[in-house]
Amino acid sequence: MPEPLIAVPLRSRRDPASVFAGIAANSEHCFWLDAGPDATTGWSWVGEGTVETQPDLVRSISLTPADSAGGAAAGPFHGGWVGWLGYEDAAARAGAPISAADPDVPAERWLRADRFVAFDHERGLAWAWAPAAEAQSFAARVEAMSADPTVAEPGPAVAVARHVPDEYAALIERCRDAIRAGDAYQLCLTTRFTIRSTVDPLAAYARLRARTPAHHGGLVRSGDVALASASPERFLEVSDGVVRTRPIKGTRPRGTDPESDAALVTELLESEKERAENVMIVDLMRNDLSRVCEPGSVGVDGLLEIESYPAVHQLVSTVSGTLTDGIVVGDLLDATFPAGSMTGAPKLSAMTILHELERGPRGVFAGCFGWVGDDGALDLAMVIRSIVVHAGGAYVGAGGGITWRSDAAAEVAEVGIKARGPLAAIGASLPLGW
């Protein structure tokens, strides 16, 4: 195990964007887990790391609470890994058929955090985390950073879609056929939008967070691949032996004025289709968590709550449970991942049907990203509203939950709403019809 990190408080307030620009200028492998621009709550982490060559070490971390004395004030993440997990490996572990992996982007990438800065947005404080021998020098380096995070606008491009709108609408009807036949209750049907041109992930993320800020955004760059995300969905959080998940199902665009905006919130709350879809995924996540939690401890902490973002309103629920002693990260992932909000229910049947319909890998999209701590804490978000960058270009995945009550035209429009922001951040527009 690498040398433990210690926290040194910074004397002056620093901007996470500037600190990341300073670190990224000299680091091939870096990360920024972002509570959002102008955040007044939550934590952000900006740092650099080393590619983990034994990713099974991450899966082996015990989630039994460990003593965190000495670091609690400096945030919940005291050292460990930052990275992502893709969809296909998890689907295969669950027994589902999968498409061939993307050759351009690793399905799993973890960076061992060598040093990082933790930002407490509520208190306006920050700490530099590094091995004891270099903690003071790293803090001094951060204090001296003055990198300019300004970015230029990208050149225009038109994305290429895996499915044209009419084809996607036909796939929705095939989902409804599967539901009518009793093979699924709900299916999360997705597609992909691709561009083949050079993308600067730092500039792309700066534009993405400015246009569609989110409380679980982030940028993980490793060599010539990167994940830039404005995810609004926390997948798994573990703290003090308690696991929480916050599935999102139900979306409406923002209105053009306060009256239309409020009407769209009401429409979302009163939609039988959206409410049924959300409740089905809540039940699925309750079942998943019950496999690794103490009997009787799994419950619903929040049901059908509205969260609003610059581009959309979302319907969100919260499920939690107390983990059984001895559970490790791999156990939790095997029980819950891929997330039910990105598969449908029943999960294995849904993944099998979707594999036949989608006809291509999801890759990092529909996976998860975030941090896993050495001490058994973790925080992972869903890879949605995201850009996956590689040497040959980039892709954006998007989709929606299909139920028997789904309207194909509305579902096609929802995919366009979800993909528009990430595509705009790389200078791309939606193909005709989306």
Describe it for me?
The chain is an alpha+beta fold. It has one domain (5-147, 158-429): Anthranilate synthase, CATH 3.60.120.10. It has a 20-stranded antiparallel β-sheet that branches. The termini are far apart. It has helices at 16-24, 56-59, 87-93, 135-143, 165-180, 201-211, 258-270, 272-290, 329-336, 347-358, 408-425; strands at residues 5-9, 29-34, 43-51, 80-85, 108-120, 125-131, 157-158, 160-161, 186-195, 216-222, 225-231, 234-239, 242-245, 248-253, 299-308, 312-322, 344-345, 368-373, 378-382, 386-390, 393-402, 428-429. Helix content is 29%, strand content 32%. Helix 5 (165-180) crosses helix 11.
> Which structural category fits the helices and strands?
alpha+beta
Helix content: 25-40%
Estimated radius of gyration: 21 Å
Overall geometry comes to globular
Using the coordinates above, name the CATH class: Alpha Beta
- Overall mean pLDDT stands at 93
Q: Give the tally of structural domains.
A: 1
CATH topology name: Anthranilate synthase
Number of helices: 11
Question: In the CATH hierarchy, what is the architecture at level 2?
Answer: 4-Layer Sandwich
Straight-line distance between termini: 49 Å
Number of strands: 22
Major sheet characteristics: 20 strands, antiparallel
Task: List the keywords.
434 residues; alpha+beta; Anthranilate synthase; 20-stranded antiparallel sheet; two-stranded parallel sheet; 11 helices
